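Can anyone check this?
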Amino acid sequence: MADIKIQRPHALGMDKARALAQDWMDDAAKKLGLTCKLVPGDGEDTISFERMGVTGQMKVRADAFELDTKLGMMMSAFKPLIEAEIDKNLTTILAKAEGGTPSA
C-alpha cells in the first residue's frame, strides 16, 4: 500500500472551505466514482471517501485542507501520477476560490 498526504493552507474561512469541499465531493463522486461521506464538526469537517483500490479522508478546516489517501497494491504503481494530479487540482481550486491564479 502507498500513502498520499497533502496539506494545503488557505485563507477561505470555514464557510467557504465547506462550500469548496462540497464541490470537491460532488466532483469526486461524479468523475472518479468515489463514494463520499461528510461528517460535519465544530472545528473541522471530515470527508471520508473510497472506491476499489482507494480509501481516504479529507479534513476541512477554516485555514487548511488535509488529505490522507491510501492506495491499494494495484493503484500504488500510479502513486506519482495520482499525487501530482491531486496536488495540481487542489492548487487550482484554491487559487480560484481565493481569487488568484495557480502558481504551479
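Reply from J.R.: I decoded it. The domain at 2-97 is CATH 3.30.160 (Double Stranded RNA Binding Domain).
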